[in-house]
Design a protein that fits this description.
The chain is built from 9 helices and no strands. Helix 4 (68-88) runs parallel beside helix 6. The protein is mostly helical and 179 residues long. The protein starts with a helix and ends in a 5-residue tail after the last helix. It has helices at 2-23, 26-42, 46-62, 68-88, 93-106, 111-123, 127-140, 146-157, 161-174.
């Protein structure tokens, strides 16, 4: 009985969400989902935030609003946040990769997404793959020491002491207090 009741509540909720979406413009619906996702994320309700980000991304993808640049920016933020939560709270590197890729596809200049994907890969011991992400960040923001330090760490873990030293030196040139 309890299982049937939960199932019935779940289907009512899903139907309610579809009815809500049909009753308001796509941009308004997407904005509400984005707002709910950000609030859940800030409150530390990570599983709820993940679900809200997924719904928001779907709504933003199908949104035909008159502000494509704003929609793309919001979509990339949602994808980035979902990827971060997937990698660090849910330990799901596969989903993290998908959404980091979406964030950078929508906004190729989104250097933070490259850095965070690199960090997630590094956390999983995928140092060579992480280096590619940090290199992308370095191309976008050669003025930041962080991707050079992260690369130095990866090279060190891979046993390439010369490359590690070169990356650390570049970071120190950019900001002497960073090393």
């Amino acid at each position: 009985r309890a299982r049937k009741a939960r199932k019935a509540r779940g289907s009512r909720r899903a139907g309610g969400a579809e009815q809500e979406q049909a009753a308001e413009p796509g941009d308004v619906y997407a904005a509400r989902l984005v707002d709910a996702a950000f609030k859940a994320h800030q409150a530390g309700s990570f599983r709820d935030a993940v679900q809200q980000y997924r719904r928001a991304i779907l709504a933003l993808r199908s949104s035909s609003g008159g502000r494509p640049a704003e929609t793309a920016h919001t979509l990339s933020l949602c994808a980035h946040n979902l990827a971060y939560l997937s990698a660090h709270e849910l330990n799901d590197l596969g989903e993290a990769r998908v959404y980091y890729a979406e964030a950078t596809r929508v906004r190729p200049d989104y250097f933070e997404a490259y850095h965070n994907l690199g960090s997630a890969l590094q956390d999983h011991g995928l140092f060579a793959e992480a280096l590619g992400q940090f290199a992308a960040e370095q191309r976008l923001r050669p003025d930041l020491p962080a991707p050079y330090l992260a690369s130095a760490s990866c090279y060190h873990k891979l046993g390439d002491v010369e490359s590690a030293a070169a990356q650390a030196s570049r970071a120190a040139e950019l900001d002497p207090s960073s090393t």
